[in-house]
Design brief:
By secondary structure, the protein is α+β, with helices and mostly antiparallel strands. It contains one helix and two strands. The longest helix has about 35 residues, at about 30-65. The termini are far apart.
Length: about 70
């Protein structure tokens, strides 16, 4: 039996990377729904910001390993 206000939120990508959070929220139903929405948006931004930085880093590494020949 989970306490009232227990919420699980998660986000993932097609490559299998994912993040899940368990929240214990307080308030009435509407307040818990609002808090869940805010936490979900934050998790979404945090998750995809990490992916953006990761792929940007890989792209920079790829470009730095490229040999340029100038004539």
């Amino acid at each position: 039996q989970k306490p009232v206000g227990t919420v699980f939120i998660g986000v993932g990508d097609k490559n299998g990377k994912f993040s899940v959070e368990r929240l214990y929220l307080k308030g009435d139903r509407e307040q818990i729904q609002y808090q869940t929405l805010m936490h979900s948006i934050r998790l979404f931004i945090k998750f995809f910001n990490f992916l953006w930085k990761f792929f940007f880093f890989l792209d920079k590494q790829k470009k730095s390993n490229t040999i340029s020949i100038h004539k």
